[in-house]
Amino acid sequence: MLNNNNNNDSQANGSTSNCHLPNGHLSSMSPAAAAPPSPPPQSFLDKAWNWADAIRDFLWFIICSIGYILQK
């Protein structure tokens, strides 16, 4: 098992040799910069088509399952 040596010289710049921050130190990146970009808004029609596709896929799965059961 590896020892966590928090007193080595590589921590002088704020990071250890395995690129992890030592205990008690936070990244200098601001929270706003770390947030992922928001997706573009979807219209109602796009949302309706997504639901229709999901329902169609589910019904196709049920039909195929019934067909598989009946062929046995």
Order of helices and strands: HH
Calculate the terminal CA-CA distance, rounded to whole Å: 55 Å
Number of helices: 2
Strand content: under 5%
Q: What low-confidence regions span 5 or more consecutive residues with pLDDT below 50?
A: none
Give the averaged pLDDT, no decimals: 75
Anisotropy-based shape = flat
Strand tally is: 0
What is the alpha-carbon Rg in Å?
A: 26 Å
Helix/strand structural class:
mainly alpha
Give the biggest beta sheet: none
Organism: Ceratitis capitata
Region (Disordered): 1-42
Protein name: (Mediterranean fruit fly) hypothetical protein
Biased composition (Polar residues): 9-20
Descriptors for this entry?
72 residues, flat
What's the gist of this structure?
By secondary structure, the protein is mainly α. The chain has two helices and no strands.
What does this 3D model show about the protein?
This protein has about 70 residues and is mostly helical. It has a domain at about 40-70. Helix content is about 45%, strand content about 0%. The protein has two helices and no strands. The longest helix has 27 residues, at about 45-70. The mean pLDDT is about 75.
